[in-house]
Design brief:
By secondary structure, the protein is of the alpha/beta class. It folds into two domains: 2-141 and 310-339, Medium-chain alcohol dehydrogenases, catalytic domain (Quinone Oxidoreductase, Chain A, domain 1, Alpha-Beta Complex), CATH 3.90.180; 147-279, Rossmann fold (3-Layer(aba) Sandwich), CATH 3.40.50.720. Helix content is 25%, strand content 27%. It contains ten helices and 19 strands. Strands 3, 4, 5, 8, 9, 18 and 19 form a seven-stranded mixed β-sheet that branches. Helix 4 crosses helix 5 and helix 4 (143-155) crosses helix 9 (291-302). It binds zinc ion (ZN) (2 copies). One zinc ion is lined by residues 88-89, 91-92, 94-95, 103, 105. Residues 88-89, 91-92, 94-95, 103, 105 line the site of one zinc ion.
Length: 340
């Protein structure tokens, strides 16, 4: 089979690999679509590699069950599924509580384990979530970023209690837009987001944002009084100061962005507001609260409503071009999806 692999700093390429065989408890999927995300770009362009050359990348996987390993029950060949791309010990206290993302032995498919930029992948059956046939594979592969949004909003207590009156999302990339979509699906009364590019602003409105703030305009957010601010930019962005300014007293800042440097905060302002900071990593599968299941439910309910996020679909043979498009801020890309 073909596999899109990391080839050293700044480089990806296509290689031939043997078709993987599912072991006990595992399932082989034919990949239908695999999203390319900011983490993939960061891994490829980071000067200090966090991934081994030769590793198959891609963690936003949707596909069709192709073959079952010994002992797998509950799935049949031909079913549409998405993958929760986590591998954890299964034994520690967080794992037993379904909080695999804080397991000390956490690994990700598409990073330490072979991922979905390939014709096929083998994963444990317990990491699969069924997707309705009506959901095309590229839309189904959005389950991963949507599960990130679901998890963050749940950790910020936004799912179990009355939705906060005012939500501000910082950033309108895939994760920011997924937060807008999930918040609107959950009935949030007021959702605003910042956006840097016009195509992001357009999509945010399509997904139900009430207001879009131009991220480059330096708008004064004091008096915005958001009950919840969700940060989705990360990197080296200076977003934590505006998050504190926009926050209402007693509010929560939920951090989904992956920061790669130290943060600048205004501690006195956060003190005066008794702000709560909530970091959020990946997704969880607590009993009755499986973030992937909720993500699939929201995507299925939205029909074509979230398809606008899927700006570019690139064949697996052109994996290098997929990374170029995703890395070029002027390409108009939100989600680049790789199709075998
Ligand atoms: Zn991702
Ligand atoms: Zn564990």
């Amino acid at each position: 089979m073909r596999a899109g692999v990391y080839r050293g700093p700044g480089k990806v390429g296509l290689v031939e690999r043997p078709l993987p065989e599912p072991g006990p408890g595992e399932v082989r999927l034919r990949i239908g679509a695999c999203g390319l995300c900011g983490t993939d770009l960061h891994m490829v362009h980071s000067p200090s590699p966090i991934i081994e050359p030769g590793s198959t990348m891609g963690h936003e996987m949707a596909g069709i069950v192709d073959d079952l390993g010994p002992g797998v029950r509950g799935f049949a060949a031909g079913e549409s599924v998405v993958v929760e791309p986590l591998a954890s010990c299964g034994d520690c206290e967080p794992c037993r509580d379904g909080r695999d993302s804080i397991c000390r032995k956490l690994q990700l498919y598409g990073l330490r384990r072979p991922g979905g930029f390939a014709d096929a992948v083998v994963v444990p059956a317990h990491r699969l979530y069924r997707a309705p046939r009506s959901l095309p594979a590229p839309s189904a592969s959005l389950a991963e970023p949507f599960a990130v949004a679901v998890h963050g909003l749940r950790l910020a207590d936004a799912g179990s209690v009355t939705p906060p009156a005012r939500l501000l999302v910082l950033g309108a990339g895939t994760i920011g837009l997924a937060v807008v979509a999930v918040a609107r699906a959950w009935g949030f009364g007021y959702v605003a987001t910042t956006a840097r590019y016009p195509h992001q602003a357009r999509l945010a409105k399509q997904l139900g944002a009430h207001d879009v703030i131009d991220a480059g305009a330096g708008e004064d957010l004091s008096g915005f009084d958001a009950d919840l601010v969700v940060e989705t930019v990360g990197g080296l962005a200076d977003t934590m100061s505006p998050a504190g300014i926009a926050l209402a007293p007693g509010g929560t800042i939920c951090i989904l962005g992956v920061f790669t440097g130290l943060l600048t905060l205004d501690p006195l302002m956060l003190l005066g507001k008794e702000a709560r900071l909530q970091w959020s990593n990946c997704y969880a599968r607590r009993p009755g609260q499986e973030d992937f299941a909720e993500a699939v439910r929201i995507l299925a309910g939205a029909g074509d409503g979230c398809a606008g996020l899927l700006t570019h679909q690139v064949p697996l043979d052109e994996i290098e071009r997929a990374f170029e498009i995703a890395g070029d801020k002027r390409s108009g890309a939100v989600k680049v999806t790789v199709i075998p």
